[in-house]
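Tokens for Putative Heat shock protein 70 family. Go.
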Amino acid sequence: MRIINEPTAAAIAYGLEKQAGWYGKRNVMIFDLGGGTLDVSLLTIGDGVFEVKATAGDTHLGGEDIDNSMVNYCVDQFKSKHNLDVSENPKALRRLRNACEKAKRRLSFTSTIDLEVDCLDRGTDFFITITRAKFEQMNMDFFNKCMEPVDKCLRDADIEITNFHDVVLAGGSSRIPKVQELLRNVFKGMKLCQSINPDEAVAHGAAVRAALLSGRGDGKLQDFTLVDATPVSPGVEVFHNRMKIVIPRNTKVPVVKNCRLTTRHDNQDNVSFAIYEGETVRVKAL
């Protein structure tokens, strides 16, 4: 069994589709914004090799955050109009969340939507019109936060923006026009690659990798090598709840690392290690 990073899987799906017409290497940024996480990877693809140069992301940032923002806005609007608070009504909140999620998707293709929920609370209907401009305004902090891993990835890889060939979108939330606009701004107006289905790209790439590892690949599938990297830094807990990083983030894998540690007390005959991953100095809050 192997584990593959989601943006790397998306890159495989993208690369296999596109590589027939390529000459030389290409620098590609994969931007994977899903329902609950954001993953960004920078790869160099060419000569049958997919090499991950840098990776970054946020495991607590995704489309669900937009849903939460819209739900909170609608709860406030409903309370303002009808003096009814549905924040403690799980059934009403679930129906409202479903309506907000549908509205979010529709706003990727239209400038105005009508959000309506019949009998939301105590027989009272809820109706509101949301424009794309209002949607972008209420979620602007979220959209700006999505660009932070992109900037981090660019710094780690140390590649000039002018040397990029493609920016590939994956994950359903990457369809949001404001997210695409901010990405184009980062990459100086570069056209974003949307030729692969963002909902299927990761699964497609992972399936290709699995076929190759199982020996069932043929022709096209056998014609590439994957050089992956660690998305976060694995390490061990040492004295005073501190984190000792053993394998730095963006290290090429597989890899072997040696690390010398000392015991806390003299004459210890056994040692236990708590393994963590991340970039913080401490593994636990004091």
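The helical segments are 6-18, 63-82, 90-106, 132-138, 140-157, 177-186, 201-213.
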